[in-house]
Amino acid sequence: MEPLSPIKSVSAFEIIKVGIGPSSSHTMGPWCAAERFIKFIKSRTDIQKVDEITTYLFGSLAKTGVGHGTDIAVIMGLSGEDYTQIDTDTIPQRIETIKRSNTLKLNREKDIPFEYHKHIVFDFDHSLDFHPNGMRFSAKLSDGETLEAEYFSIGGGFVVCENDEEINNNAIKTPYPCHSAAKILENCSKLNMRVSELVFLNEQAWRKPEDIRAQALYIWDEIKSCIFRGVNKTGTLPGGIGVRRRAAELSQRLLAGKTFTQTEDWMDAIKEGPRDFNTVNKWVSAFALAVNEENASFGRIITAPTNGASGVIPAVMMYAYCFTPDFNEDKIVDFILTAGEIGTLYKKGATISAAMGGCQAEIGVSSSMAAGALAEILGGTKEQVTQAAEIAMEHHLGMTCDPIRGLVQIPCIERNTMGAIKAITAANIALEEDSSGARISLDDVIKSMWETAQDMNSKYKETSEAGLANIPINIAEC
Questions:
Q1: Any idea what DSSP says for residue 117?
Q2: What is the radius of gyration, based on Cα positions, of the chain?
Q3: pLDDT confidence of 130, banded at 50, 70, 90?
Q4: Can you count the helices (H) and strands (E) in the chain?
Q5: How many beta carbons lie within 10 A of that of residue 143, not counting itself?
Q6: Model confidence over 40-53: pLDDT tens digits?
Q7: Whole-number Å distance between alpha carbons of 99 and 118
Q8: Do the Cβ atoms of 249 and 285 come closer than 8 Å?
Q9: Would the CA dihedral through 32, 56, 123, 68 be positive or negative?
Q10: What is the mean pLDDT of the chain?
Q11: What 3-state class would DSSP assign to 154?
C-alpha cells in the first residue's frame, strides 16, 4: 500500500501550526471536514434550504470519537466556529446549549434541528475503505433532495476526499523540491546551504521572506503561551478517568515555590536556575506535560505534527531557550523550518496518522522532527541533522497507539516527555558522530516506519481495543 499523501511540496507551516486539543486527527480533522461540507453545500445550493444534517463517524473516529471530542468538533465546525480563534473555555457551554435546545445554528446562518443521538451516528462496526478515519455528512434539503460527502482525516489536521481534485492538482512548485532526505542533502550540497536555509528558500513559494520569519516567531509565541498556561493550572483533566495535572506542581517545586505572572519572567527564572542533569531533565518533562495537559483540556496548542504529540517540539524548543547558548530569533526560525521539513518527509513517505501507523506516527515523528531541528541550531552539518532525525525515529519504531477510553491522556501525555528526551539525546549523539559512518539513513527509517505501520494489527492503531487500553479504569493514575 502506498502512503496516502501524494508526492507534492508541503509547507513547513502545514506541519507545524495552531491547533486545538485533544487530537489533530479526531478533533481538528473532523472540525475542518464539517467546515468543508458547509462550503460544499454552498457550492450546490442556498444554505437556507438545509433542513437537517446527519454526521456518520466510522472506524477509529467512532471507536475513540467521544474521548477525542470528535462529536464536539463536528458540532462546532457545522456551527461555523474557527478553532484557531474561538475562546476554547466557552466550548463546553456552547455544546451544552445546543444539546439542551436541540437546535444548531448552521454556519451562524440558519437554525436547524439537532438531536445529539440522532444527528451524530457512531458506526462502530464499519470502516470506509480509504482510511480508518472516515466520516460522511448527509444534508436533507427542503426540496426533498439530499447532499452527501465523505471526508477522511489523514493526520495532522489534514482532510481529503478519496478522489480529491484539490489534492491531486494545484500543487505548489518549490524551486528545489525535497521529497526525501537524500534530496535535501543533495540540494544543500548543490547550493552550499544549511538545511534551514534550503527550507527557507523553498518556503518562499508560499510566503514572502518576512512573512516566513513572522509566522515562525508567531508559532514560538504561541508555544511559550501554551506552556505558561499549562504550568499555571491545577486540577483534574476532563474525561472521567481522574488524571491529575502535574506540570504546575513540578514547576513550583523546581522554582522553590516562586510564582510568576509573566511568561518571560518565568522563563528567565529557569535560565538563571540550576543546570544539573536531573533539573534539566525535570524541566523538559514539565514543558511537555504542560502542553499536553492543555491539549487534553481542549486548549489551543501548536500541532506539530499532531496534537497527541504536540508537547515534544515545544519542550525541546523551551529546553533550547533555557539551556543552550544564544537561542535567538534566528535560531527559532531555523528550528521551526527544519522540524517542519522533516515532518513533511513522513507525511509524504509514510503517515502522521496514529489510526494508520500507531503512535510511532505521532510521538516518533515529532521526536524525529525535534531531533533534527535541535542538531541544526546547535551547528550540526546537514548529515548530522538527518542522522539525528533518523536516530530519534529508529527508537520509536513499532510504538502502538492504545489510549485508555480514547482520551489523549494515558499514556499520551507522558509519552511526550519521553519523545522530547529522546530527541535531545538523538541530537547529542549525532553531533558527536562522523555521520559518514551512519549505516541507516533517514529515508531508510521512514520506509521502515511505513512498513511497520502496515504490518501492525489494527487494534493497536488508535482504537482503544488493545494494549494499555485494556487496563481497567479504576487503577491508580499512571
A1: H
A2: 22
A3: confident
A4: 21, 9
A5: 8
A6: 999 999 999 999 99
A7: 11
A8: no
A9: positive
A10: 93
A11: strand
Q: What is the pLDDT of residue 469?
A: 86
- CA dist., res. 301 & res. 41, Å (int): 30
Reported as a pLDDT band with limits 50, 70 and 90, residue 476 is very low
DSSP states of 31-80 as a string?
HHHHHHHHHHHHHHS-GGGEEEEEEEEEHHHHHTHHHHTHHHHHHHHHTT
Please state, in angstroms and rounded to a whole number, the distance separating the CA atoms of residues 309 and 314.
Answer: 10
Cα gap 195→407, rounded to integer Å: 36
- Report the pLDDT value the prediction gives residue 154, as an integer from 0 to 100: 87
| CA atoms within a 13 Å half-sphere pointing along the CA-CB vector of 159 | 20
What type of residue sits at position 20?
Answer: I
* Bridge partners for 448 per DSSP: none
Spatial CB neighbours of 385, under 8 Å, sequence gap ≥ 6: 195, 338, 372, 373, 375, 376, 430
Tell me which amino acid residue 207 is.
R
Q: What is the mean pLDDT of residues 170-192?
A: 93
Global pTM reads: 0.90
How many angstroms separate the first and last alpha carbons of the chain?
36
- CA 449, CA 261: separation in Å to the nearest integer? 43
Interatomic CA distance for residues 463 and 129, integer angstroms: 16
